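Our working data are protein records whose layout never changes between entries. Instead of coordinates, the fold is spelled out as a row of discrete tokens. Here is such a record, shown just as it appears in the course material:
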Amino acid sequence: MYGVGMVGAGWVAGEHIRAFQANPDSKVVAICSSSLKSARAKVREMKLSAEVCKTYEQMLRRPDVDIVCIATPNNLHFEEVLKASEAGKHMLIEKPASLQLDQLARIRDSVRSSGVRTVVGFVLRWNPLFQIVKSLIADGALGRIYYEETDYQHNIGAWARGWKWYSKLDLSGGSLLGAGCHAVDALRWFAGEGAEKTMDIAQVHAYSGGYRRRKGEIDYDGFIVAIMKMKSGAIAKVSSNWDCVMPYRFPIEIFGDQGTIKDNRVYSRKFPGQTDFITIPTILPDSGEVTHHPFQPEINHLIDCIKGGRESHCSLEDSINTHEACIAANMSAETGKTIELPLI
């Protein structure tokens, strides 16, 4: 039984707690938050027998805490990951793991040194459509991929919990790093060869715009679009659009020399006689509501990696390239230059 220490008591924390409760090998034994009142309320809400710790450091000193689940505002992740790594705790880290390149390098090196297991919260890798698409690609239904498109379209605003910090660049990281990173990670996941491989991004050129910054609703451009070149040579387009006037959508298009995928529709030379796209009835990544996200298989995967002593395909080490690509896009949009990766 692995003891879990929960950092944060907000919107997403509740879903993480439910998933740890449902896993037979884990138990939430401690929780801490910037607000003791919120932490106590979360304990009551989730019917936990966990201790409310006054500080994060107090929680890390507990010998029964084996895993730290970090679900706090984005700007706090760096310090929390660094301290958990130094304390020898395994981690589930909500994305983004950090907002700055030097911080990413420090936590990467710390995790390498400590040998702890990590999963960064690119939870859509466990979405049923993502898993179907990944298995079709691994089975050769698309052949060699030469072009991809993914988009994160979410008119997030004051209705959302945490909007006060999400609307600030220095606290959230902006549209792409703060949430659109799911779309960047999807590009890498789908382009990877094999069932659990990713493909690194090698080059980024981006533009940003939109209207909400001009209206004073946020202090950065809510829309950013980037052309990226994968290490394989494939070209990709990704955007993060917080300025869209529409319901949440996460469109996916993947083109290979043997077939094409558009969301849950597939057309492939692997299916002789096919005259039109086949529609796969499955769960799409079409909601920004956290209760819709597949936290259970993500957390089950973390526990399995810890038990088996193996690295996750969604580890901090793997996620560095996703973070770099998002930061490179921000740099490119600001300077007008094409950015080469890696940056660290």
